[in-house]
Amino acid sequence: MGWTSCWLLKKHHTQTEKEKAVKFLRTRPLSLREAAWVLKVSSSVLSDWNQSFDKEAKITVEMVKVIVQAAEHLRSRGRRLRLKGFTEQLRKDYDIHLSKRKVREVLIANVLFAVRTRKRRPRFYQSLRKEIPNGLLSLDGSELTVWLDKEPYKFNVELSVDVKTFAHTAFSVGDSQTSDEVIKVLEAHRKDWGDLLGILCDHGSGNLSGNTLSYLQTHGIELISAGPYNPKGNGTDEGAFSQMKQALGGIRLDLSSPRSLARSVLEKLISLYITMRNRIPVKGAILTPEGGMKVKVSKEQWDLERQHLKDYKRSKLEYEKEAISDAEEVFTKVVNREPGKKTLSCFFGILKRIQQERDDEAYRRYCHERYNEQVMKQLKRQEQEQQSHHSVEGIVEMLAKDVKTTFHFVKELAISKARQWTKELMKSYHYPGALKNHFAKAWRS
Description:
Blueprint: H1 5-8, H2 15-25, H3 32-39, H4 43-56, H5 61-76, H6 83-94, H7 100-109, H8 123-128, E1 136-148, E2 151-162, E3 168-174, H9 179-193, E4 198-201, H10 210-218, E5 222-225, H11 231-248, E6 251-253, H12 259-277, H13 289-293, H14 299-315, H15 321-337, H16 344-371, H17 373-384, H18 386-389, H19 392-402, H20 408-426, H21 432-444
Parallel strand pairs: 1-4, 1-6, 4-5
Antiparallel strand pairs: 1-2, 2-3
Helix pairs in contact: 3-4, 7-16, 9-10, 15-16, 17-20, 19-20, 19-21
């Protein structure tokens, strides 16, 4: 039955239902989608149950050995190790039912799979999309080109999109992304829609310039900065730009005219797009973006959302101090070599890369300590010798062997067990000094 066994353990299903499921599941193997349909639960719920079941299942050293041998055999045949297919192969050929995440960790621990950590979107960002309109504004820029005859004119379009309603609220067309363009968009937004609580943006120089920060502080607007190339910061705007460019297509004019004409044409087209886009509801929504922006918000909701933004800024995950220190050192060398790279976006790019490397290495160490075959063999030996370790001599023998190991995880476990068993031994001694003397004598011998 494999991973579907986890369903059978759920309390909210009756015994009759469980018996029927067992009979059915024994007839043939099921995919996740098929099992979800049979059990009348969603695929996402069944996947969560599956992950929970994997957590409870014990990964033995024998299991790790089989996984390692299967992976090495696959690679010896010159085939690429694809995690999804390999996990299915383990289920089918070896009756090993683990999630892809667990299989990946075993492979990483035994140097058979590359480490690549991924930051999850904070739950806070997801909740931002369910709060008030005109609370948080996503701000980003993108390059658009207008062709006059065979001459291209490139412009930076700065666009603001309301995170709650997806309403396109304001834009500006300039030569490059500067603080003036950012402020121009915010002014246009405030003129049409009133004051807002905060903006969500990347670490672009225009977004974090002194003029921009001063403007935000003056008008009480919170800056939620999410870093370069980070979908939390500009995912809303990137989706808007994608739809805009798809709708507009290439802009080519067979006229010999100055740059100002090109700008005015582009502004008109964007204005037309925004007007039409705001009249179409987002999939699953009842109100149009324009209608959503007109929903009245109470002062209590406004104050609650402002506090929400401030709490997030205080509690969100920051970069490690060591990563910042290393990034400063690298950034200094880069700037000394190329002064033109003395920008915030360059620094955060370096910082992001260094933090990623540190995260990857930490994850690699975690996998190695948990699922490396040699580590697990030592742990298994410890378990087999536990019966003799409940004596003073047994504890001393275990410590003498394991504190010298190169595996940090094994060493920590040995010390933890020694502490636990020593506390148990203390119950049979009337005086702690007697137990201490016993340990000293055993250690000398």
